[in-house]
């Protein structure tokens, strides 16, 4: 279930093998703000007075190449209705360059490095665009958003400027057009066998103290079982990545999938080392207590997802991390077939010391890079108008998610439903047609971001309830921009990986009791010996510099 968007900034850079190609000051500055005369020759097929909310239609037929991340769950088909309807509405034919999902990051790097990349490069998670900045291979798209009225309108309406600032490079520009969300969408939390809770007079917990009490009560009823066994531990650098992420939120600290060595202390107004924070220690102490008292299965940190789910289905445990899709399509569907009267519910993320908050910064999603070659095209302006319509207009987003009204879905006010005979993400397992596989809609390459009304139109009853509860919580401020220059990025990367490895290894050792928590100060000393303070100082210097230059 995990994607590249949940890796740390510098980890992706390291994996990409483009360390030396990090940000460089002033890249693209020759194009900054002074392009009107150049663009006058690049308006072939463009609309003259294109504006927000208007249907984009190319003045004459155009085609643009696009990198297509081919998902094995819904393999690409040339005959998808998505392609045909898109051309019908916009006059644009997309020419997909198909890349298997498993090789997407690697193949994308190779294509860009060889100068063979398509014009449009979607499904790019920040900060992987940074690797292509200094070579000039991708455009500083912030120079061209003047051509994108829907994008600008949503940024203004939803006050997304701080989020966009967080992806700017040291030249003050950003090189990725991210998916834009009106509200934070939470993904994961704890789920419980509520029929078992009911049987013993227990209520679903709302705080982490109550989680402990419920697990303790279940342990007393079933002394030979671990009440809580977890998953999402393999194929990720951070075992139990989902649990650490949402538990970290309750403690006000990034952990698990959202972990990054550097995070901003908004009270102190400076960057600090995440794995050394007091809140991080409290999180570790909480999990250590669950494991020590046999309330949590220690195999959670090493078992595969299938092994974890089998324990749930065999009633060896009664609680497990979930997201709404897994809850409905996996846990509940299979439990109900095997265990009579079984009920499984996902609770809103339990509250902790940080109160009713969600971490900031999650209103941006993966997005689109534009190849620098595209700027040489005489239809560049039309291409940017097209990108604006498909990825950022309400109509374009509705088409990408739901398809064609009356053909693939019906709508009554805010209520959207797949047409009978069409299944959407398992909504009707017996339906002869599937929205993604057979029609190409709700494809992760094109369908992301959007208004809360549109995003929530795809929620089942469980997710609707969960997201409504989470949407009432306060979003913590976004970490401010602190882009590193190329030589700083190289240095940070050298320090970053050993520090992160030390944090992950010791987090697990503390939680599993292989290292006593009395050695926390010794652990902090180990981090210091691996250049923790130098890394923090580097980021604070970058933060101060960016603030002075762009304040």
From TrEMBL:
State the UniProt keywords alphabetically. Cell membrane, Lipoprotein, Membrane, Palmitate, Signal
InterPro entries tied to this protein: Bact_solute-bd_prot1, SBP
Q: Does the record's keyword annotation contain Membrane?
A: yes
**Gene3D superfamilies xref list:** Periplasmic binding protein-like II (3.40.190.10)
One short Pfam name that applies is: SBP_bac_1
Keyword Kinase appears in the UniProt entry = no
User: Which PANTHER family does the UniProt entry name for this protein?
Assistant: ARABINOSE-BINDING PROTEIN-RELATED, POLYGALACTURONAN_RHAMNOGALACTURONAN-BINDING PROTEIN YTCQ
- In its UniProt entry, what is this protein called? Putative aldouronate transport system substrate-binding protein
């Amino acid at each position: 279930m995990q994607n590249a968007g949940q890796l740390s900034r510098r980890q992706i850079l390291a994996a990409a093998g483009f360390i030396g190609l990090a940000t460089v000051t002033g890249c693209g500055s020759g194009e900054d703000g002074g392009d009107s005369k150049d663009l006058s020759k690049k308006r072939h097929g463009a609309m003259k007075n294109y504006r927000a909310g208007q249907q984009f239609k190319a003045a004459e037929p155009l085609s643009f190449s696009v990198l297509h991340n081919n998902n094995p769950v819904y393999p690409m088909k040339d005959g998808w209705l998505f392609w045909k309807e898109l051309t019908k509405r916009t006059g644009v034919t997309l020419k997909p360059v198909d890349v298997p999902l498993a090789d997407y990051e690697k193949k994308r790097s190779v294509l860009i490095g060889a100068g063979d990349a398509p014009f449009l490069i979607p499904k790019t998670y920040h900060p992987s665009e940074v690797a292509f900045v200094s070579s000039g291979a991708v455009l500083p798209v912030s120079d061209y958003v003047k051509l994108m009225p829907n994008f600008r309108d949503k940024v203004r309406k939803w006050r997304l400027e701080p989020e966009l600032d967080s992806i700017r490079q040291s030249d003050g520009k950003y090189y990725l057009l991210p998916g834009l969300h009106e509200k934070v969408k939470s993904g994961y939390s704890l789920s419980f066998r509520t029929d078992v809770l009911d049987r013993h007079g227990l209520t679903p917990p709302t705080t982490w103290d109550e989680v402990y009490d419920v697990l303790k009560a279940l342990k007393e009823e079933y002394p030979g079982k671990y009440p809580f066994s977890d998953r999402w531990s393999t194929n990720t650098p951070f075992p139990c990545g989902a649990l650490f992420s949402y538990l970290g939120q309750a403690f006000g600290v990034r952990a698990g999938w959202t972990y990054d060595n550097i995070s901003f202390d908004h009270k102190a107004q400076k960057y600090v080392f995440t794995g050394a924070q007091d809140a991080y220690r409290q999180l570790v102490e909480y999990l250590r207590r669950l494991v020590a008292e046999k309330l949590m299965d220690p195999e959670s940190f090493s078992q595969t997802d299938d092994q974890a789910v089998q324990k749930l289905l065999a009633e060896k445990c009664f609680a497990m991390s979930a997201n709404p899709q897994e809850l409905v399509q996996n846990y509940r569907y299979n439990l109900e077939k095997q265990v009579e009267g079984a009920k499984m519910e996902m609770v809103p993320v339990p509250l902790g010391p940080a109160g009713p908050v969600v971490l900031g910064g999650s209103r941006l999603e993966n997005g689109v890079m534009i190849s620098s070659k595209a700027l040489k095209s005489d239809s560049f302006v039309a291409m940017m108008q097209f990108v604006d319509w498909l990825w950022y207009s309400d109509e374009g987003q509705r088409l990408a998610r739901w398809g064609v009204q009356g053909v693939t879905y019906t709508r009554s006010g805010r209520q959207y439903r797949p047409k009978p005979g069409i299944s959407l993400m398992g909504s009707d397992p017996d339906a002869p047609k599937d929205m993604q596989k057979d029609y190409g809609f709700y494809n992760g390459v094109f369908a992301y971001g959007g208004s809360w009304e549109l995003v929530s139109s795809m929620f089942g009853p469980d997710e609707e309830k969960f997201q409504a509860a989470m949407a009432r919580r306060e979003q913590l401020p976004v970490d401010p921009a602190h882009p590193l220059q190329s030589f700083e990025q190289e240095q940070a990367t050298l320090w970053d990986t050993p520090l992160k490895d030390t944090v992950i290894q010791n987090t697990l050792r503390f939680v599993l009791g292989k290292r006593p928590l009395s050695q926390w100060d010794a652990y902090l000393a180990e981090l210091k010996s691996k250049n923790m303070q130098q890394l923090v100082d580097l980021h604070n210097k970058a933060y101060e510099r960016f603030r002075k230059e762009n304040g």
